[in-house]
Design goal:
5-stranded antiparallel β-sheet; 2 helices
């Protein structure tokens, strides 16, 4: 039995993509400093994956992340586990240091790439110091960007 083909991470118009597919859009919804977890921020993002979209392999800057699916379906693979499809109302958790190796819109598309959009909330618990240094963009650390900097 042969292995499934691996997704190829490539740059398209200066943006890292999975096989040239569309990328997610991220909207900042809130940022709080809960007094019962000093030194930490609670950040909520709305993540939207258009039809056929995929996010390259990444981590989250040491943050713990809880995601709540709002609509559509997302296929996610963490670390060396199996890929799992989650749908509206389901949640998933990424512990600090988790490697999110696959993240994609799992809704079916027609021959023209039309299909359903996928959306979920992503709630991060992250060190204040990290956010001060890296900003919100540091919440999505793409493997390809890290590898590029190390060259």
């Amino acid at each position: 039995m042969s292995s499934p083909p691996q997704d190829k991470v490539v740059q398209k118009e200066g943006v890292w993509t999975v096989d040239g597919r569309p990328r997610e859009t991220i909207t900042l919804l809130s940022h709080h400093h809960p007094p019962n977890i000093p030194g930490k921020s609670l950040v909520t993002l709305l993540v939207t994956l258009p039809p056929n979209a995929a996010t390259p392999p990444h981590t989250h800057g040491g943050a713990a992340v809880l995601a709540l699916m709002l609509r559509g379906a997302s296929r996610d693979q963490m670390n060396d586990g199996e890929a799992v499809v989650r749908r509206e109302g389901e949640t998933f958790y990424e512990a600090p240091g988790c490697h999110h190796v696959k993240g994609e819109n799992a809704c079916e598309t027609d021959g023209e790439g039309k299909g359903e959009e996928t959306q979920f909330y992503a709630v991060f618990i992250v060190d204040d110091e990290y956010l001060e240094r890296k900003g919100y963009s540091g919440l999505l650390v793409l493997d390809a960007e890290v590898e590029e900097k190390e060259k």
